[in-house]
Prior knowledge:
The complex is a heterodimer. Chain A is of the alpha/beta class. In chain A, 14% of the residues lie in helices and 34% in strands. The termini of chain A are close together. Chain B is 42% helix and 16% strand. In chain B, strands 3-4-2-5-1-6-7-8 form an 8-stranded mixed sheet, with helices on both faces. The radius of gyration of chain B is 18 Å and the shape is globular. The A-B interface holds A 58, 61-62, 65, 100, 160, 162-165, 178, 180-182, 198 and B 150-151, 153-154, 156-158, 160-161, 163, 193, 195.
Amino acid sequence: xxxxxxxxxxxxxxxxxxxHLVGFCSQVQIKIxxxxxxxxxxxxxxxxxxxxxSEIWQEIKYLVxxxxxxxxxxxxxxxxxxxxxxxxxxxxxxxxxxxxxxxxLSAIRTSRRQTxxxxxxxxxxxxxxxxxxxxxxxxxxxxxxxxxEMLAEPLYLKNTVRSGLEVRHxxxxxxxxxxxxxGTVIAAGDVFVWGRLRGMAHAGAxxxxxxxxxxxxxxxxxxxxxxxxxxxxxxxxxNFVPEIAFMSKTGINLARxxxxxxxxxxxxxxxxxxxxx
Amino acid sequence: MSRxxxxxxxxxGVGKTTxxxxxxxxxxxxxxKVALVDADFGLRNLDLLLGxxxxxxxxxxxxxxxECRLAQALVKDKRLNGLVLLPAAQNRNxxxxxxxxxxxxxxxxxxxxxxxxxxxxxGIELGFRNSIVAAKEALIVTTPEIAAVRDADRVxxxxxxxxxSKINLIVNRIKPHMIEENKMMSVEDVLELLGVPLxxxxxxxxAVIVSxxxxxxxxxxxxxxxxxxAFKNIAQxxxxxxxxxxxxxxxxxxxxxxxxxxxxG
Lengths: 277, 265
């Protein structure tokens, strides 16, 4: 038996011009590579609206503190800043945050001379990947225009996403805690909330209709999957069961999570989930 | 080791300054040395609530400008031994002070007082950052309204990001009869959302309005009133004592609900 409390399908927005797809990489990312932690800042190109440094710094702080610690103590960190201009003070502030989290800033990867100089003066090793010289005699192959749709490793957060916080990740997001009203979670993959989902969650934010949102208690203010939006039903159930939100033919639906995979399958031809017979 | 506590809320008008003055007085009443710092530059009120307005000579800005010593700017409350106020400047705005300067002042104060209680302005801009810069602990004041709770949630997130991890909650202006009729968010609803420990519940009571208008903290003016008792309890909880929460609905409700309230069920 499937319970499908009627999530209002009337609110689904199909208008392509009102696209809710989110451009990614506008946030700081953490990757682990060859036993060291890469802290990747968004490049100026990825971010048309320049974020003030204080916000980037806040993001670094939040990520380093709340991310499930998957690195050994005192691990080396390489700060990948791309074409961003970073001065000595900013480097110092990053180092303070990392030291608090028992991480060690060891290297800076940059394509800007000034940043490289600042990093070297401060005593960090510098990895320079300078931009291709425009006067070079050799043809540099142009960067591929087709972005590869690769999802990043899941982001695992052990914390409540409070009001005002927006978590974005180009992969799946797993949250052990609540998403409070006013909090936002945006993932290119799925969204798992091991707690109450009371804020906004957006799965498949790059357009993947197969993406799903799961929560122990669905009390969201809004759900988005790919291009669709759903509001909560007028009447909330009294007893919450873990539920899963998915794209059906008619829009975003909810179903009980425990037997979802047994009762539903994804139809590629329709680009949505359908009930198995 | 002195304790530096910021009192903040995000939303304005929920009772930060009232809590600061009354709680400060209640702690001083327990025999502690308490310095209250008004961080609401440009819209200072704390001196009014304490009834110390006419005795303000220098402000925190004068100290920073080097026009007076810190001890000169502190206004001693003559009614309560051990309670002093560091007033904010009224003629400037919140941008006139930097977080680093605020830190210097508060660190200096910490040498002479057991408690430094900072009254933060509303909002999350520079004034707020100034008030939390030196704080080790925070008391979040909220009323049982969705806007206040939402802002409190945001502020808790910001405090956590700043490394202030000891955060307690005061729910102000509770109306027990409205909660019983299910017309107001209950303390439990607020707690469930915010997920920080509760340290006090203050009932909505006319005695608070009377005392603020008289410029006399409740502990002095109306020590027998319910809110005065609530503040006294918060002061004792801050001191590490276990004090049961007040049951405001004592005249109504059956024995079971009373017991549930007492045991925090």
